[in-house]
Amino acid sequence: MNFIPFHAGSRQRKLWQFHGGLHLPDEKTLSNTEPAAPLPLPSQLVIPLQQHIGTPARACVAVGDRVRTGQVIGEPQGPVSAPVHASTSGVVTAIEPRAVPHPSGLQAPCVIIDADGLDQWAELPPPIPAFKQTAADDLRQRIRQSGIVGMGGASFPADVKLAPGGEHPVETLIINGAECEPYITCDDRLMREHAADIIDGVHIMLHILDARRCLVGIEDNKPEAIAAMRQAVSAAGLERLIEVVCIPTLYPSGGEKQLIRILTGKEVPSHDIPARIGLLVQNVGTAMAVADAVLRGRPLIERLVTVSGRGVAHPRNFRVRIGTPAAALVAASGGYRPDQARLVIGGPMMGYAVESDAIPVTKSLNCVLALTSAESPDPGPAQPCIRCGRCAEVCPARLLPQQLYWHARAKDLDKVQDYNLFDCIECGCCALVCPSHIPLVQYYRYAKTESWAREREKQAAEHARQRHAAREARLQRLERERQARLRQKKAAAPAKATAAGAKAGARTGAKTGAVAGTKTASQHADRQAAIEAARKRAAERRQAKAATADPAASPPPTANAGQETNAGETR
Amino acid sequence: MSAGPTITSSPHGARNNRVDWIMLQVCLALVPGTAALVWFFGWGVLINMALAVVFAVLAEATVMKLRGRPALPAIRDYSAVVTALLFALTVPPTLPWWLTLLGILFAIVIVKQLYGGMGYNPFNPAMAGYVFLLISYPVATTSWLPPDVPALLEARGVVGLSFMESARLIFTGALPAGLDWDAISTATPLDEMRTLLDQGSTIDVIRQSPLWGDFGGRGWEWVGNWFLLGGLYLLWRRVITWHIPAAFLAGLLVMAGLFWLLDPQTHPSPAFHLFSGAAIFGAFFIATDPVSACTTRRGQLIYGAAIGALVFIIRTWGGYPDAVAFAVLLLNIAAPTIDHYTQPRVFGHKLGQKRT
Question: Which N-terminal stretch is annotated as signal sequence (chain B) (predicted)?
């Protein structure tokens, strides 16, 4: 049934289906009726130095420094990294680990800025209105300088993603406006209020990628957003390039691979990225940030955040500076209701529960969800799996979740990979429908983490083995050389003795000196030879290493790669 | 915010599907079929069901206690109740109480709990319990009362048993005055058909007897329809999917149809197979037991079709008149293997791509 296309929307574009998925109560109207309100500047901002996948930025300001809005306070390190900017003007009061939005309640280095309330802007790079006459590399550079990362949740540096490399030209840019997670409406509001900016951003990205067309996928539960985006496309006269496609509301249609499937009928090969099949997906928020960076020179210092759930008094969207504490958002929403039971960052399907709202808004934080116990009841203890197969029915990756569960439970890491654990996008459909209330996703995360750890261990063991072998070889070589020297000496000794015997009695003192002299000279020559040999060996080793580097260097599925290729931007 | 929120893994929404709900749906779906059985075969059916449920719950609770596990959650999932009901609907309505006890003990203690309990049993407990009795006590487990169709009863000069008479028969083995086993017990239509065919009769001759209705045995033939009603209810509530029942019935009908076309005088029609014995009951209620069945979609089709074909084979050439229990148990063994070879193509993988 996966191959039955159907027609939807007025444009009669052919759409495809992905396997499984769930029709969830979308809960969008809780928060999407009012425009996003600008949140007043908080007195203190906590700006994490890592808000992206890749190497953390390094702080380039010191405690006591005065910073201005938009000033770089953390510089990117290495190719896959992103800078961070001061979200308002003020004084840096500390650079220290603080609690950041993370499932484990992790603390990470942050720059703490006491706002002066003036919001004085730093000097910004010049706008590039004529982006079509600008080289793609320059635009990518601007995007990098502006600290733009994927705002759909994966937070992969946008400039890196927009440079997929020569061998895979991107033909179609896909803009993800599906926003399939219940409750979250920030992309909905963004599309309604800033459609023109988003389309500008799309146009810029199309130019950077030299792509032929763009498809914007939006779920049909957001008719206003669809209308606004279509309007913006015609206003910009880009109908031939950009098509806004209305897709059926079905979780997780906003998953990167699922959205690609719906819009193009193609499946991204397992363990690969969409660029492999000539596609690239960006979130609408990312498009907006690109427009800001290129057309206005503004770095990414604010975003829309949904505050929702029946556990807050007044759910709605806010325009928030990065680094604003989540507590301020909740306060601006009228605070918690008494029956609030759980605080979730992100959506109810893929978000993570946090213990405290004392965490800052980051570039990829899209929703603060305060759920009541009625909305998020305690599932109770897990019961035995009865193999009913509902999980497999709803799995969008067409996996066999219960088999994965058995093997993950048994810690059989080979078996879970046989059952393609790493194709799991952790969308949570299986766990939601499980009649035994087994926390399936938790088991898969556990098995993935264990697999990565084992892979690292394997590599470490291999490294140690190679080092050991090299050391053994070196010791053996030294021993052989020592023996050789000894033999040489032994061979030389009788000859010398004979020579000495012939000149017996003659100037003993001088002779001793001469022997000592020759010995030093020969030792010196030996050492030179040994050094030369060692150099040669080192060079050979380097060459061998360079030759084998490519296959050997392909890393295990690291947390980053895993998130990028597996978790994607499911929203 | 309220103090100390509980941290749990995503997803955070309400999980509305529940094991006990599923089991109760199965119980509910059994109502029409049960009513039909009671209508045709008397109160014994209900007495057996009540006995079986009590025995099963007690057995389950005792084993859980012995295993040092909480008994209440195990009972509350109603899986033991479903096993008991399925078992009771399979055995004759006159089965002595101690045979019900034996069968249930075998099903719950040995087949279910000794293999690890709920979710771990490779075999369908109800069918294993039934087969255990069928092999050990073949006469008692195949002695049925004639269906309560007035013409049939008159022909044999018996009347249907009252509730008290049924209870006395089950608990003490005492028949009502003036009746003896030979008078009231009867072979099932499948048994009758086999025996007569073995004796060299032809279908045309056999069907002359007033025992036969439109498709199968009079009275017997309509019970399946009521179970079908319950099966459709399960499909509607999405407790089961169509794959196993459809494949089961297709497998049975294709095999029966093939041989019937070859020789309609020695092979009863596909309709006879469909409306006799436990075909429909088995297709919707027995083969669909999720724990012991296949779980992949293609696997379920193979599993169901193989059971259907086996039912025909055993009915036609095997040693027992009905075959659903044996066919299901045989395929239970094969289910893990079938599952292994019928894994769906994972998203982003090529068909037949070797998993790495």
Answer: none
